[in-house]
Every structure is written in structure tokens, then in C-alpha cells.
Design a protein that fits this description.
binds iron/sulfur cluster, 472 residues, binds S-adenosylmethionine, alpha/beta, single chain, 7-stranded mixed beta sheet
């Protein structure tokens, strides 16, 4: 959850294709883990055409901007990046090299025509549901010599048409994302997702299990199941019945070698008894749950169309903690939703004090065109939103520090995934996703080992390996 909506572009990596002659592909990703996953899958789709990842856009025959539209300035960021890419495209053209520029993701979905009007040098605009058609779009762009736009919600399910996810996503990686559900039918007042990602749909169980199995065979030990409403998962099971997320988790937990299962993002309304019981029964289900509440005032929760009250959220948390006492929570908050009073905001602060979060993401309400809240009266002034956000973030930071402090002196399992920043260090993740580093040999990377936490740093923990692990 660490990189959610960070705005920091992630560059795709991978291994070469073995089919057509090599062409460079550079993907710049904004937004959530689902976009990170989608970027990797676009690489899978383009690999048979000979596209291989390259580290810089000036070495790329094709550049994809995979965009996020969740808050404002998203489109402006895209246009400013496109301005930079235009210069690269022109310089390469002068040198006799063609470059295809594609804009993908939710900004493309919402503002496709505007992109083509303002940036006519863009060759392809594609929404999140159409990237399985990329090869055909590339061919059409080459033939037509004009822009290709595909932002419909096709009748076919893209997962049925995607090639198997290749090892590049996962090779040498011990953690992986796996999208199992997409879209949303909940229509929260503030949110663009139902409009940009379309209606809720779930991948069939067998397709998810097959992808998970391939990941585990390539060495992955920690899988994060992704979905805009992941706990609303309702995939078709092998016998034609509908499986919920809990049933899927029990099945995934049978995969030998898969020691950690996570899922995000969940909606409180879909936190059913079966899923809570799975947290009790499955040690593989990590004791860390991202369960956005957005606000603590029932009046605002109603205005947001969230479909639950603050006390119902408290009750879900209580039942989860009963089932899994070491469970820690993270959440999303929006301050300054239209109509939010000081009293409403205080109810949010009270809910935070009551629940206690290990991590949280908090945002100022940002009006999104076309959503009900954007047109509502009683917009909250920016300076009031700023002050509320600061107060909330100070409290959340305190809680995060307090949670991390509880781990100092304890021995916890750490899955080592890479070398650390300093020589002689290796780094990994705790069950609660904090980065942890220790002094240790590289051959321990890929193992899950007990670590005694000795210090809490700003955004990470430092520890020592238990004696017997060092010589292992
Ligand atoms: N499906 C998830 C849920 O129900 O909580 C959230 C998905 S949304 C992609 C991620 C987060 O972005 C939300 O939880 C919300 O806090 C934030 N967000 C969405 N729309 C927003 C807006 N218009 N202004 C500010 N934050 C927003
Ligand atoms: Fe957006 Fe609400 Fe759907 Fe989450 S549940 S994706 S916040 S509409």
C-alpha cells in the first residue's frame, strides 16, 4: 500500500522477448497498484511484437503513460509529461526513428478526446479495459497514420484475451500483485472510479489460481490480490458456483510456498463473516488490512453514499481484531467533503482515536467532474480543508509512530526481498508491510526469517537476524 497514488512514476522492468526484432518500450505509471499491475500486463501483451522494456523514453520506440484520475491536477500532469515526450519524439524523428506515444489508464478514459485535441502527436489513447487490444491498436496506428482511440467498455473481458502473465513481472521478485476484480458499482459521491473503470467484474477462480500458481513457481511468496473493491470479489468457481474472496483465500492458502496473502482495497460493506473467519483461520492471510472509512461522521458518510455508519465500521474492526488479535489497520480519509462541518470533522478525529490506525492516507476532497459531490453546494473552503488535513495527518502520524514503536524489542518474521541501501545490508517487509533492514548476507534474500527489531526509523524498522539465521 506504500505506493498508492504516490504520483511517483514507476518504470517497468522485464526480460527480452524471443519473437520479433527488439523494440524499446518505456512505461511510466502513476497511481495505484492496479495501474502498476496493468503496466506489467501491457508489457506482456506487447512482448510478442518484440517490445522490450528500456529505462529511458529517448531509447523507446513506444512510450506508454499509464495515468490516474483519482484527484485533481492528474490531467495537467499528463499534459506536462506529454510536452516533454513530444520533444523526444521530434528528436528521434529527426534521427529517422519513429516513436509511438500511447496514453492509457483513467485519464485516457475520462479525457480521451481532449488529449487528442491538445496533443495531436499522441498516437493511441486507451482506457483501462481495452489494453488487451494494444497490438491491434499499434497496427492500426501504423496503418492509419492518425490517432487511435479505444475507451469503450468492451463486451469481452480483457482477462480472457490477455496472454499469461510472464515471469518478468515476478522473476527475481518475491512479492507480486494479482488483479482479481475490477470496477465499481458503489458510486461514492466523490469518486470517478465507476465512470473510468466501469462496472464491477471478477475474474474466474481458475484463471486467478493459474496465475497465482505461475507466480509461486517463479519464486513469489507474497501475493497481493488487487481490486477496486476486492472484497466484493464474486468469481465463477470451477463448478459454476460463485466464490467470494474468503473461499478464494482458503484455496490460495493451499499453494505450497505461498506464505503471505494480502488483498486491497476493501470496502467495509463487503467485509463479511466468511472473510473475517478467514483472518482467524489462515496464517497466510497477513494481519494488515487496508479498509478505507473516508470519514467518521454519519451525516458525511451518508452524503458520500458509503452505505455504512461510523459505528458499523467500529464493529467490523472489533470483530476483525477478535478473529486476529495482531491485525493492524490502514485506511483512507477525505477531509472537506461538501457539507463537512467542524463537528463532522471532529467525528472523524474521534473515529481515528477510537480505532487506532497503523497507517493511513488522507486527502483533501478534490471535486471530480461528473461526480455528484462536485456539483453539490456547500463546498468547503481550501483553507479549512488545509487546516483539517494538517490536524488529521498529525494524529495519524502519531498513531503510525506508536504502532511502529510496539514492534521494537519484538521478533517478527521478515520476508527479505532485496539488498539494503547500505553495503552488507538486506531489506524486506514485515507482515504489516513496514520496510525492515538488517545486516546480513545476500543469500538470505528470498527467505522469510525471524528478526528482532531494535530501532524504529522514520519510515522503516531496523533489526538483527536471530543468531541461527545468519549461518543458515
Ligand atoms: N474503493 C476504495 C474505497 O472504497 O475506499 C477506494 C478507491 S480510490 C481509488 C482511493 C482513495 O482515493 C479513496 O479511498 C479516497 O480516499 C481517495 N479519493 C477518491 N476520490 C477522491 C476525491 N474526489 N478527492 C479526494 N480523495 C479521493
Ligand atoms: Fe470509488 Fe467508492 Fe467505488 Fe471505492 S467504493 S472505488 S471510493 S466509488
Amino acid at each position: 500500500m506504500g505506493q498508492r497514488h504516490s504520483g511517483a512514476p514507476a518504470i517497468m522492468t522485464g526480460t527480452p522477448a524471443n519473437t520479433s526484432p527488439a523494440r524499446g518500450l518505456h512505461v511510466i505509471t502513476w497511481g495505484c497498484q492496479m495501474n502498476v499491475y496493468d503496466s506489467a500486463r501491457m508489457g506482456d501483451v506487447l512482448r510478442p511484437l518484440g517490445y522490450q522494456p528500456v529505462a529511458t523514453p529517448d531509447a523507446a520506440d513506444m512510450i506508454i503513460l499509464n495515468t490516474c484520475h483519482i484527484r485533481d491536477k492528474a490531467a495537467e500532469k499528463v499534459f506536462s509529461e506529454l510536452g516533454r515526450l513530444r520533444k523526444i519524439k521530434e528528436a528521434r524523428e529527426t534521427a529517422g526513428q519513429q516513436t509511438i506515444i500511447a496514453v492509457a489508464g483513467c485519464v485516457a478514459q475520462a479525457e480521451g478526446q481532449e488529449i487528442l485535441a491538445r496533443a495531436p502527436y499522441v498516437d493511441i489513447v486507451l482506457g483501462p479495459q481495452t489494453y488487451h487490444r494494444l497490438p491491434e491498436m499499434v497496427a492500426r496506428a501504423a496503418r492509419a497514420g492518425g490517432a487511435v482511440i479505444e475507451t469503450d467498455f468492451p463486451a469481452e473481458q480483457k482477462f480472457d484475451f490477455l496472454p499469461e502473465a510472464e515471469a518478468p513481472q515476478t522473476a527475481g521478485n518475491y512479492t507480486a500483485f494479482l488483479t482479481i476484480q475490477e470496477g465499481c458499482d458503489k458510486f461514492c459521491s466523490f469518486c470517478v472510479v465507476p465512470y473510468t473503470r466501469g462496472a464491477e467484474s471478477s475474474r474466474p477462480v481458475l484463471s486467478v489460481l493459474a496465475e497465482a500458481r505461475r507466480m509461486v513457481e517463479s519464486g513469489v511468496k507474497d501475493i497481493s490480490l488487487l481490486g477496486q473493491n476486492v472484497n466484493a470479489y464474486h468469481g465463477e468457481g470451477p463448478d459454476g458456483s460463485t466464490w467470494g474472496l474468503a473461499q478464494l483465500a482458503y484455496e490460495l492458502a493451499k499453494l505450497p510456498g505461498l506464505s503471505r496473502i494480502r488483498y486491497m482495497t476493501s470496502h467495509p460493506r463487503d467485509m463479511d463473516d466468511a472473510l473475517i473467519a478467514a483472518h482467524r483461520d489462515l496464517p497466510q492471510l497477513m494481519p494488515f488490512l487496508h479498509l478505507p472509512v473516508q470519514a467518521g461522521s454519519d451525516r458525511i458518510l451518508r452524503a458520500m453514499n458509503r452505505g455504512h455508519t461510523a459505528d458499523e465500521y467500529r464493529d467490523i474492526v472489533r470483530r476483525l481484531r477478535e478473529a486476529r488479535p495482531d491485525l493492524a489497520l490502514s485506511s483512507d480519509f477525505i477531509v472537506g467533503h461538501p457539507g463537512e462541518t467542524d463537528e463532522d470533522f471532529e467525528a472523524t478525529m474521534q473515529l481515528v482515536r477510537d480505532v487506532g490506525f497503523a497507517l493511513a492516507y488522507s486527502f483533501k476532497y478534490s471535486p471530480r467532474p461528473g461526480t455528484p459531490a462536485a456539483g453539490a453546494g456547500m463546498q468547503v473552503p481550501e483553507d479549512v480543508k488545509d487546516a483539517r488535513l494538517q490536524a488529521l495527518q498529525a494524529l495519524l502520524r502519531e498513531q503510525q509512530d506508536a504502532f511502529n514503536a510496539t514492534l521494537v524489542g519484538k521478533t517478527i518474521p521478515v520476508l527479505f526481498t532485496s539488498e539494503g541501501r547500505k553495503p552488507g545490508q538486506i531489506a524486506g517487509r514485515s507482515p504489516w508491510l513496514q520496510p525492515v533492514h538488517v545486516s546480513g548476507p545476500k543469500h538470505l534474500i528470498g527467505k522469510e526469517l525471524p528478526v528482532r527489531i531494535v530501532e524504529r526509523l522514520t519510515n522503516s524498522l531496523s533489526g538483527v537476524l536471530e543468531e541461527e539465521c545468519v549461518s543458515a
